[in-house]
Amino acid sequence: MEQFSQFSEQHTLTPATEFQPLISGTITGSGTAGSIPEFTGANTIGNSEMVQVGTDIGINEPTPVATLDVNGTSNLRGTQTFPRWPRRPPPPDSTRK
After folding, report:
1. How many angstroms separate the CA atoms of 81 and 14, rounded?
2. pTM exceeds 0.90
């Protein structure tokens, strides 16, 4: 097992050999086109709170309007980089007096 530390917390990674694949039975369930499926039971799939419309992904948002559209509270971990806004000052309005 491999251990790593981040922000003074210890985490242990378990080897993939501990994964137990389904060796008998059938995966059952149903879903809606465009909905990203999730396991709702040991052998059952159903709709998740995520959808895909074209190349856009919605989380708790059935009609995403951006590459990633999240409806609800978010918690971002790690480093985020956002572009400066505005990138440059707007031009002066020459119609004002």
Report:
1. 31
2. no
State the amino acid at position 1 in one-letter form. M
Residue 41's identity, in one-letter code, is: G
Instruction: Dihedral sign for Cα 69, 73, 75, 79, please.
Output: positive
Question: How does 62-71 read in b/e, with b if 16+ C-beta sit within 10 Å?
Answer: eebeeeebee
For residue 21, what are its two tokens?
């694949």
How do the pLDDT tens digits run along the chain, 97 residues long?
A: 444 444 555 556 655 556 566 677 788 999 999 999 999 988 899 999 999 999 999 999 999 999 999 999 988 889 988 877 766 666 677 655 5
